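To close the chapter, one final illustration. This time we ask the reader to focus less on the individual chains and more on the assembly as a whole: which components sit near each other, and how the overall shape emerges from the parts.
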Amino acid sequence: MPKKRIIKFNEAINEAMVTAMNLNKKVLCFGLGVDDPKRIFNTTKNLKEKFGSDRVFDTPTSENAMTGVGIGMSLKGYYPVMVHQRLDFFLLAMDQLVNSAAKWHYMFGGQQNIPITIRLIVGRGWGQGPTHSQSLHSWFAHIPGLKVVMPSSARDAKGLLLSSIFDKNPVIFIEHRWLHNTTSEVPVKKYLTPISKPKIIKKGSDITLICISYMTIEAIRAVDFLEKENVSVEIIDLRTISPINYSIINNSIKKTGRFLVLDIGNEKYGVASEIISTITIKLYKYLKNPPNKITLPHIPTPTSFGLTKDFYPTYRDIIFEVLKMLKKKTLKNKIPVLKNLHDVPGNWFTGPF
Amino acid sequence: MVLIRVVEEMIANKYRENKMRCPTHLCTGQEAISSAVSANLKIQDTVVSTHRSHGHYLGKGGNVDKMIAEIYGKSSGCSKGYGGSMHLIDLNVNFMGSTAIVGNSMPIGIGLGLSSKLENYNNISCVYFGEGCTEEGIFHESVNFAITKKLPVLFVCENNLYSVYSGLNVRQPKNRKIHKMVEGMGIKSFNGDGNNVIDVYKLTNKAVKYIKQNNKPAFLEFKTYRWREHCGPNYDNDIGYRTEKEYLDWKKKDPIKNYIKFLTNKNIFKLEYLKRIDKSIISKSIKAFNFAEKSKFPSKNDATKNVYA
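The assembled structure is written out below.
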C-alpha cells in the first residue's frame, strides 16, 4: 500500500488553490497580502510565481469595493477567490456581500450567477481580542443565496475549497486560525468534497456531538476520557453551515436520542440555536434528553491573558456537559487538564496573529 | 432622449392606476446624459447603473417592452419580475444591471473594467451614479482602484443636486467641485452641462477617446435636474425642500426642447420630420405598456426559485 501523505491545513489550502488555478485559467486570487512576504499564513505561497500578477494580486485596503470587483469579474465568467486575514475586516464589505453577491442571481431572474469564494480567517488567542477573533458565520448563514463552508481538517479544506471555488454561488469559506497547523492525510490528486454534507468523524450510540469548525478538534479530544467512562459518542463535523443537508444528522439523532451542538460563535441567535430548533421541531419524539449547546459566552472577546482564561470552551467543558446529559457523575478535577497555556494552540505559537 | 421622456411620462401618468407596484425613480429632465453618453458606447461596452436607471437602460438599447413589464412585475419583464424598476438588466446590449443601494453597482462596474483589461481592453465599462454616491466610502475605493489598475472605466456622475430630499448644502462643503476633487485623486476628468445633449456628446467622446488611447479611466460630471419627485410620479416642489422657481429655471433648460430648437433653427431637420419620429416613439411606448398589461404575473411558486444557481 502506498504511504499516506500527511500535510498541514494551510498547505492543503495552498494545494487547492494551485489545483484550481491549473484547472481553469479564469480562477483568480486577490486580497490584501496575497503576494506579500507572509503569503496569508503560507496559504497563497508561490501562486503569483506560478500564475502571474494578472491572476494573483494584492489590493488596496478597500474591502467593500474589492468584493464588488470580484462580483463584476464573476459576471464575465471568472472565479474570484478573495482572502481576508481576519474575518472582522470583511465586515466593511457587507453591502457588496448581502445586497449584491447574495442577491444577483435572484433579483435578475436567474440570468447571471456569482461564483465568488471569500476566504475568511477567524483569529483566536494571543490577545486577538474583540475585533480580531469574531466568528460571524451565523450572520452569513442568515442570508439566503450565500453558502457558508467551515472545514475542520486539512483533507476537507482542500476538497471543500475546490468545491467552493467552482460552485456557481457565492461561498463564504471560513478557516479557523488554530486549524492552520493541524495535519491530516490529504490525497495529492484533485477531489471535490460535497458542500452541504456533514461528515461522521466517529461512530457512537449514546449521544451525537454536532461540531462546527475548530470545535471538532475539541470533541475528538474528549473521546478517550468519555469512552473510559463508558460513554459512546458519535461525532459529526458539520463542515457546511448553510445550506445544511440534515439527513446524516437526523439518522444519527434517531439512533442516539441525544445531541449537543458545539459552536465557535457567540451563544445567542447563532447557528447552534438554529440547529437545536430545527432538530427539536422535527425529531422531538426521538429525544431522550433536552438538547444543549456549548458556545462562546455572549460577550465580546476579551484581550488579556487573565480575562480569556475561561472564554473558549475546551474538551473539558464537552466532557462535563456530556456526562451531565447522561446523568453520570464525575468530578471536574478527574478530567485531564490542558497541556498548553489556554491562549495558544500549542506552545510553538507565539503570535503575533 | 424622446423615447426616455415619453416612457417616463407615461409611467408617471399611469402610476396611480396602482398596477406598477414598486418604488420607481423617474429621470424626466435628465435624458440628455443617458442618450449622449450611450451614443458614444458600442454594444460590447458594459453599463451598470443605479436606482434611477430607466434612461441608462433605454439609452443603451435595452428592450422597452421588457422594462415596462418588469415595472409591472410580470414574468415577461427583463428580470422576470424578481427585480422591479430598480433592478433592470438586458444582457443582449450589455446592460449588466442596475441596483438600488447608493454606490452599490460602482465597484461591480470596476470589476467589469478589470475583466476587460485582462482581455486586452476589448471594451469600456461605463458606470452611472449620482453626486450622492461621491459621499460614499465605496466611491473613493472604486475610483482609487480604477486609477491604480489603469482600468477602462468611464465614470458618469449625474449631479442633480439632491439626494432624496437633502440638498447639497447639508451633504458637501460649499463650492465643492466633484470633477476637481477626483482630479486630485489622479483621474482625467471633464465636466459640462448635463442638459445640453451636444455638450454631453462631445465631452463623452473626448473621455472615451482618452480611455482608449491611454488605457486609463476617465470621469465625467454633468449638472442636471430631475423634474419629478425623488421616487414616484408626482411633482414635489410644494413640500419645501426645493422651490417652484428653481424647478421652472431648470425646465427652461429642457434638453429636448432646446435640442429641437437647435435642429430646426439650423435647418438640420424639419419640425414635421421630428414630429413623425415622436409619433413612432409614442406608439412604441404604448405597445410596451400593452405588452406589460397583457403579460402574466410569475406564480407564487416561482418565489422560491433562483435563490441558488
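The mean pLDDT of chain B is 97. Residues 271-294 of chain B form the longest helix (24 residues). With these observations in hand, you are ready for the problems at the end of the chapter.
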